Each structure stands twice: as structure tokens, then as C-alpha cells.
Amino acid sequence: MWCTLIPLVLLPTPILGQLSHQNNNPVIDLGYAVYEGLHNATSGINSWYGLRYAQAPVGELRWQAPVDIEAKNNYSASRTMDASQPGPSCVQGYPAWFPPPPGRNSRYTIGSSQPGASAGNVPFQTSGPGNALVYQSRGNLIYVTIQYRLGAYGFLGGSDVLVNGASNAGLLDQRAALMWVQRHISKFGGDPSKVTIIGGSAGGGSVVNQLMLYGGALNPPFRAAIAEYPWMQQYRNASALGRQYDLLRQASGCNDLRCLRLLPDTKLRSATKETITTAYRNGDYGFGDFFFGPYVDGSVIRDLPSNEFKLGHFAKVPLLTSREGYEGVAFVNRSRLTDEERARDLSRVFSNAKQAFFSRLFQLYPRADYNSTLTRFAAAVGDAVIVCPSSTISAALSDYGQPVWKMIFDAGSQTHGALQPFVETVNVGDSNNATPASIMRNYYISFATFLNPNSVKFTSVGHPIWPVYQTPDIAGFRALSVTHTTVEPSDDPDVRPQCDFFHSQSYVVRN
Ligand SMILES: *[C@@H]1O[C@H](CO)[C@@H](O)[C@H](O)[C@H]1NC(C)=O
Ligand SMILES: *[C@@H]1O[C@H](CO)[C@@H](O)[C@H](O)[C@H]1NC(C)=O
Ligand SMILES: *[C@@H]1O[C@H](CO)[C@@H](O)[C@H](O)[C@H]1NC(C)=O
Ligand SMILES: *[C@@H]1O[C@H](CO)[C@@H](O)[C@H](O)[C@H]1NC(C)=O
Ligand SMILES: *[C@@H]1O[C@H](CO)[C@@H](O)[C@H](O)[C@H]1NC(C)=O
What we know:
This protein is an alpha/beta fold and about 500 residues long. Helix content is about 35%, strand content about 15%. Bound molecules: 2-acetamido-2-deoxy-beta-D-glucopyranose (5 copies).
């Protein structure tokens, strides 16, 4: 689930676009293509699904930077295309330890929702991504979801790719989609100068990567960022990337990138799967790691996130970030019974670590402090990969003059991704959750429209001021703490020795 989540875009829309209607369904002319979307009379939301922003990344375009869709297509101005149904989703990049959930399959699509005229002010629960936010914003937001290449398709590295292809292609896809938004969102009534990027989990990590892209570009195609439970797995080094590439070559019977590009999709899919399985068996990656992911290439991603954030090499924009109560639980093997087994798993996740790293880690997570071996190791993994990075980026952006708000979300399932249904899909079901959900969405909408979660009220429910992360003359770091029964300001509980340790060892954790 967290693997398909991606930066999403929120846009304040002071003016509704010029839309022609057929059968109540909205038709949009993008200049190079005409799409008929879907009007939902119940919610008043217009949606367009499956819009391509780039050429299909197949054949010669595999492991290349995405090519804009406008450059080459067979669309015709006289033919209106159907955009009323979600398109297929990208080939997923699930690791061997991860049971893939049943779901839609597809590639390269962009969908956007636009509020219609009938939106009221009752919190409204809808099923499409973003619809709940669009609805509650009362016509002030457009929500765009994007897809990008995942797994080996988006994050194959190694010297052959560096020389003959594009590194971190998946991140380039995200940037290309954001540039498509810059070119076209005004036709939907959006303001391209007011884009907020948002994503959870790998999407939260993607938001962090977009901040760091090209060493922190001066004019990024967004003005604010929401990095939810940012998941920062190890950025593999050159030899580990070379090994991934070699495994893929072996599994596919190919010698070089040229051959890999010519493989039929079914062959590449099965070779990728075999690579992921073999590598897990060989111990090339551990439980909790997705194996293929963003890496340092010296240009798209210039250095490890910890270094880039220390040096101010990131886009300087306001930030909203969060982490859940028990982040690590989803990334450790529940069936392990002993600390010894778990320590072995951990040494695969932190594959660059030597003894001193583990000696200190076990000291900082003493057995006696935890009620089971599971909670002990889950705490360490969650801290290293999600919890501590959420504080590092908060401090860095705030040190460079940006307002930052951090949330500790300890409601819902309290585990990785627990926040998501409260803000995005909202099918939380019982009325107890409707109240915090409405408050969460209100903070998001206010942040996307006024760059501050406390500026405007898009809910009738009372809620506290969410304090900024750092304030001159005030000791410590502030956060918003959400539990099953409360929403209140708190100190950031993640400024502590365990996080100082992971930060000081970031060249070992490699994030
Ligand atoms: C446009 O090209 C795609 C594949 O590139 C093909 O599936 C589709 O049928 C073509 N459409 C038209 C109208 O030619
Ligand atoms: C999880 O742990 C159990 C028990 O030790 C083991 O049999 C199983 O192979 C592990 N699963 C994975 C995916 O590593
Ligand atoms: C329209 O919106 C309502 C309310 O969110 C939802 O229940 C329904 O499934 C939507 N209809 C379609 C066709 O998407
Ligand atoms: C690269 O990472 C691997 C583990 O992923 C590690 O075994 C190796 O020592 C590292 N190489 C260097 C040069 O750091
Ligand atoms: C163990 O600790 C976790 C996390 O603090 C808690 O959720 C769980 O209920 C505890 N389990 C037991 C058996 O006490």
C-alpha cells in the first residue's frame, strides 16, 4: 500500500475553469488532447482519470528520463477521449517479504479532481483519493494524483544505467508530472504558482527527495510540501547497485541495458520478480527494505538526505510532516521469536553497519524497556527509517527560515499509514473518527491554501493552534499530538538520544 503512494498535488483554485459540459460530464481541452471526465452529482466533484503526462516508458525509453506527452502522441483535437475511469496502475515494486495486496494495475496516468458548484459545508466522506479534501475545501482545492515508475523500472542503478540511461528515473517521473501540472493546471482552474506536494510513506520519502532534487533547485514546481510518515530506506552504495543490476541481468539472460530494453514486458516482469526473490534469499536485503529505491547518483540525488539537509541543499518551502505511534511494526517480521533472530534481520537492513553500531543500538533500546522482542526491534527500525528523519528534516527546514509543523499521529491503527484514511480516503466508518478526520483535513486545507495550518477554518469542529516547530527564545521543539481522544500541542518526542545516534550514524544507515 505504501509503495503506490506518491506526491499528490493540492492547488487552491480561486476561479473555476472554463468547462464545457456534455451529459453533465466535464470536458477539458488541453490543447494537445481533449478529455471527458466524470461529474459526481452527489459530491459535486469533477474528476478526470488516466491522463498521461509522458510517453510510455517502454523499449528505448526504459530507464530513460520521461519524455513529455505533448512531444509525441496520436491524440486528435476532434476526438474526445474517455477519462471517466481510473487507468491501470504501474508495475509494483514489492519485495519478497511483502504480501502484495489485491489492487488495480496500471501505468502513467494522472487524474485530477475538481470541485463542482454544489459542494456544501458538511464533512463528506468519499472514496476516491483526495475527494474528501476537495469536498471539505468547498471549491478551494484541486487534487492531482500521479504515478511513477517503481522497483527496478524506476530505480535501477549501476554503471551501465549511469552511462546509458537515467538514474533515479522514478523521481524524474514525479518531477515530469509536476511540470505537466505547471503547464496545464490553469485549464482546470488551478493556479500553478500555488502547488503543494503531498505524499505518505514512500510518497513521504518522495516528497523529501523532491525537496532535495538536483541539490535543491531554486524554483521548484511547488511552493509547499507535506511529507507524511516519510519512509527513508537505505540509499544503496555503488557496489550494492551494481549487484542489483547484475542480478537482473542474470535473471533475464541479458548482458547489457540494450538487451534489457528490448525484453518483452512479461519477461522483464518475471526477471524483476526473480531478482527480488533471489536477492532476499541471498541476504542482499532484509525484512522491511524494498530493495529498489532512490540512491545517490551525484546529479539527481547528490548526497545522502542527512547531508543534504545539514548543508541546506533543499528547496526552501514551508513543510508539514508527521509520523505515527508505532512506525516500525510493519517493517519487522512478526513471526520471529528471539532477539538473536531479529538481530540477524537487522544486520541485513543496516547492511553497512559494523559491530559498534549494533552495540550502541542495543544499549539505546534496552531489552528491559520493551514488553516483547517485536516492540523492541520495531522501535529501532521505525526510528531509523521514519521517526527520526521526520525530526531531522523539520529542524533543517526550520533552521533555513521555513515554517514547519510536525504531527505525532497516534490514533486509528497507530501504525504506519494510520493517518491516511483520516485525510485522504476517509472511510473510517465510525463517527468517533469523523471528528478528528475533519480536523486533520482542515489543517491540510489551510496549509495548502494559506501556507499555515491555522489560517482558515474548513470545519465546524473546534481544534487547537498547531504550534510551529521552533520559535526563537523557546527551548525545544514543538509538535501536535493526536490520540484516540485528544488533539493537542506537545513537545516533539523524537528529539532524544536514539535519534541523535541514528543521525550521527547516517552514513551507516544511509539515509
Ligand atoms: C494510439 O496509440 C496507442 C498505443 O501507442 C494505441 O493503443 C491506440 O489505439 C492509438 N489510438 C489511435 C486512435 O490510433
Ligand atoms: C519470518 O520469520 C519466520 C520465523 O522465524 C521465518 O520462518 C520466515 O521465513 C520469516 N519471513 C521472512 C519473509 O523472512
Ligand atoms: C459519487 O460520490 C459519492 C459520495 O462520495 C460516492 O459514494 C459515489 O460512489 C460516487 N460515484 C461515482 C460514480 O464515483
Ligand atoms: C556498500 O554496501 C554494502 C552493503 O549494502 C556493503 O557490504 C559494502 O561494504 C559497501 N561498500 C562500501 C564501499 O561502503
Ligand atoms: C506492548 O507494548 C505495545 C507498545 O507500547 C503495546 O501496544 C502493547 O499493547 C503491549 N503489549 C502488551 C502485551 O502489553
